[in-house]
Amino acid sequence: MSNIVLTHLGGPTTLIEVDGWRILTDPTFDAPGRRYTFGWGTSSIKVAGPAQLPERVAPVDVVLLSHDQHADNLDDAGRALLGQAGTIITTVPAARRLAALNARGLADWDSTTLEAPGRTPLRVTATPGRHGPKFSRPIAGKVNGFALHRDGEKTAALWMSGDSVLYDGLREVARRIPVDVALLHLGGVRFGFTGPIRFTMTAQEGAEFIRLMGPRVAVPVHYEGWTHFRDPEIVTRQVLSGSNIRWLTPGEPTEV
Q: Which of 236, 210, 179, 225 is nearest to 72 (CA)?
């Protein structure tokens, strides 16, 4: 299996270069300093800007958008970039809200195929995610992860978790899909208004999930740059220190 080049741009936003495809996850390119509201009394301040500006990242063939309802996964500058992407793959509700001709909404376990002249086709499968505790979907909304498969290969070349806690749906992904490279959204998101409730995996949960899935390489993202990420980065790095963990330097293309 040929290698993949990843460039972490900050928060969840990562450029994936594979088989001639340029694929961007959860685009966030706004400048730091602004407070964003997420509904139900929750909010967060963006404290770090992107490692590269959108014009340096473009052109983008595909955007994998785990969800559209929170600015730490899709901010204003990220929305502007969507119109320049060839295809947007996201949740069914997000595709409906975006109302864009290039948006494909996938339900859990549904797939679509990316095709272009001279490139290896890629099958994209939506995987389950839950952005909070049980029964939180009416508040937090629908979230998906996405697995990328080359034609005829059982092992996913790459899988991104999207914003999710560790729960049975994520464990099902680990059982059903062998994965080469896993892009994990962490951060242990928590808000003062909601007390101890978590809305994404902590580093400890990420380590447990990595043991379940067993990817060749696990890449942490979505752990810095916002005040609602409550797992300190230094602790996250200490917890996730295994030989298959790859920490990316923001803005620096890294072959994995």
A: 225
- CA-CA distance, 56 to 140, in Å (whole number)? 32
Whose structure tokens read 């220190």?
241
Q: Full-prediction pTM beyond 0.85?
A: yes
Helix (H) / strand (E) containing 145: strand 143-150
- Nearest in space to 212 (alpha carbons), one of 179, 165, 246: 179
> From CA 130, how far away is CA 108, in angstroms rounded?
11
Cα separations (Å) of 208 from 82, 164, 171, 216, 223?
34, 14, 10, 15, 17
Strands, sheet with 111-114, edge to edge from the N-terminal-most edge strand: 111-114, 122-129, 143-150, 156-160, 179-185, 217-221
CA pair distance 76, 79, nearest whole angstrom: 5
Q: Which residues contact 171 (CB under 8 A, 6 or more apart)?
A: 209, 212
Q: How confident is the model at residue 237 (pLDDT cuts 50, 70, 90)?
A: very high
